[in-house]
Amino acid sequence: MQRKKDWWKAANVYQIYPKSFCDSNGDGFGDLKGIISKLDYLQLLGVDVLWLCPIYCSPMRDNGYDISDYYNIDPRFGTMADLDELIAEAKRHGMQIVMDLVINHCSDQNHWFQEALRDKNSPYRDYFIFREGKDGKAPCNWRSIFGGSVWEPTGDGAYYFHTFAKEQPDLNWESETLREELYRMVNFWLDKGLGGFRVDAITYIKKNPAFPDFAVDGADGLAGLNPGCQNYPGIEVFLGELAARTFHQHGCMTVAEAPGVPEAGMEDFVGENGFFSMIFTFDHADMDVLDGVWCRPSGWTVHDFRQGLFDSQLASQRVGWAANYLENHDQPRSLNKYLPAEIRNAAGAKFLATLYYLLRGTPYIYQGEELGLVNCPFESVEEFDDLSSVDQYARGLEEGLSESEALRLVNARSRDNSRIPFPWDGTEKAGFTTGTPWIKFHPAGKQINAQTQISNSDSVFSYYRQLIQLRNHSVYSDALIYGDFRPICTEVENLLAYTREYEEQKVLVFCNMQAAFCTVPLYQPAKLLLSNGNVELEQDVLTLHPYQAVVLGGQ
Ligand code: NOJ
User: Fold this and answer.
1) Residue pLDDT, tens place only, 529-543
2) pTM of the model
3) Which of 20, 53, 14, 99 is nearest to 357 (CA)?
């Protein structure tokens, strides 16, 4: 069992979507100065790492995940001086800054790509994946993640490869020159004093060079791309080199978005000398839809959820460390995804918080999750900014759904649910901007906002503070940070229960995920530490109300 107390194991990470967090200059677009102005709020919450979604120069086709200049800050977010100030001010507040690192692909506006397109003999041509067409068609039938073929014609018989949108050409990791260029850039940012990186879509960097056709699996006549380029063999060489040349030299924290890593591969990724400090896995996050297609709901059960979450805990525990989250900028709000309508309220938000925050690993809070925000209703497809929402809507129609059914399913899953402006207060512009926001406000912002919650000791915000207090500043901290994770009471349906244990310390967490009561026997005296409701704790039995979460200290 790994016991090394690396600094990032004790960290509490808060994810900021800069475009929507706080706008300091009234252009309707969140910025770095806005973030600086909210550091006191974040310090009050108790977090100590801030992960910023991409702030590099970008045409924003995919909100910054399409980088046109890796060495500069997009003027809409501010300047390099603003970032330096943020890093310094965050340090003064006891926080580190972690930036997004997008190196599977860049923007089609990046000068590397522009040069590669302009001149077939340019040295930049090899930075990307160009192939000739096959019988007048694309080189293979893979579907890109945002819809349509992964191949985009260049007009001269050639095609370039893109895992995501066509405006996001993939970088060719087979090129040593490109890899060197990327390592230089990564070290440039780390030398600035960053705490580390969240590494985007990294399991896509290696492709099957033969680009074979796969069996068609959709009405569009295309096939999912994963077998040819998700965690494809050989990727370990690139990742090992990346880690050795950059991250490992700085002792920084890295969290990789790494879909497709099987349990057998975990050690390479997050083991003692793994490529990364931790990875985001997707078992629980994507269990609500089939094959990532939003118009194909899976009909998941609490049993599936428990299995996905707990299996992934056990797998990471065997070899290393986990990154625990329910929400991020790619997911809808967790209250909507995991809980039925009647409990999408403060008690429900506290329930989910208890469930995931005390798991073994580093916890991540996505902006607004600490307020218990719910999804935002979008009335028509035109209201979405997110390109994947638009694509998934079209896909739904293509698969035979009616317009209203497609809209309903996209509403439930849209990434814009969590990307709309942060509600700082209940005023007309939510305290987010003085101008016109880039996307609409949440209609519930008048009731659910930071201002009303900060001063309310019973709010979701205050509950998160208590969780952080318990995890990091209590006599149970070693158990809750470094302790072993063990599922308990697995024979009880719809109950997610586990212990965390470190030497003499023991914490028990019970989450009754159903509309019925449930009782569990306690085999030892226990002390109530936290709950989202009134607790019925007797000598040797605990009665849990519907959707009640209870944390006990064992003795
Ligand atoms: C994963 C990011 O989280 C998502 O927002 C983005 O659209 C894709 N990668 C492409 O970069």
Assistant:
1) 999 999 988 888 999
2) 0.97
3) 14
